[in-house]
Each structure stands twice: as C-alpha cells, then as structure tokens.
C-alpha cells in the first residue's frame, strides 16, 4: 500500500506467526466484551463489588461503559493503546450498535451471575 492510499476498513495484524485480518470495530468490540465478562466475574466474587450495587436495578449503558473504561484503565492491562490512548476513546470510536452489544453482554453476564448466586 502506498503512502497516499486511503486506509482499508480492514487491519492486518501479525501476531505469533499468524496473520489476522480483523475489522477494527469488531476487534475493539470483542476486546471490551471479554473485559466486561472478566469484570462481572471478578465483581461477583466480592460482596462489596458493583454487582451488589446493581442487584436492585438494571445498569444504564453509560454506567456500564464508564465502569468498563475506568476498570480497564486502572487494571494496567489495556491492549488497544497502540490505536487509542484510553479505553474511553476506544469505546467512543465504536458505533452505537457495537456499544449496545457490549452493554447487552454485560447485563446478560451480570444476570447469569445474580441467578447463580440465588441458587447457592
């Protein structure tokens, strides 16, 4: 690709001898879905975690996205810094539909852990 050519919607990344062709939005969305799952799992183990805070009500999208952005930043394990300096910027770069998918996955995972806690 020459320097004057427009960037393709696909990004080619070389990792561990494999070439992945990944759409940037999908890569970011999938990363934050994984982070949301980890976040819910970790919080569900803590009686003072945010999962207890959300036991009486459903979290709003803004709360979910803010919680994910701050937690990922503070964890020191943010893996998109090569393209987006902060998790909030990476989330903002996603379409509204992709952000909605992340929030839906967070809620689904949170509800599953809350149901599991009731069974124990």
> Element order, helices and strands?
EEHHHHH
End-to-end Cα distance, whole Å, is 57 Å
Helix content: 55-70%
Radius of gyration using CA atoms only: 17 Å
What is the mean pLDDT? 79
| Assembly state | single chain
| Parts with pLDDT < 50 across at least 5 consecutive residues | 1-22
Topology at a glance:
Elements: E1 11-15, E2 18-22, H1 24-44, H2 50-53, H3 61-75, H4 87-93, H5 96-119
Antiparallel strand pairs: 1-2
Structure description:
This protein is mainly alpha-helical and 120 residues long. Helices cover 59% and strands 8% of the residues. It starts with 10 loop residues before the first strand and ends with a helix. Mean pLDDT is 79; it is low at 1-22.
Short description:
With 120 residues, the protein is mostly helical. The chain has helices spanning 24-44, 50-53, 61-75, 87-93, 96-119; strands spanning 11-15, 18-22. Helix 1 (24-44) packs parallel to helix 5.
Can you tag this structure with a few keywords?
single chain, 120 residues, mainly alpha, two-stranded antiparallel ribbon, 5 helices, 8% strand
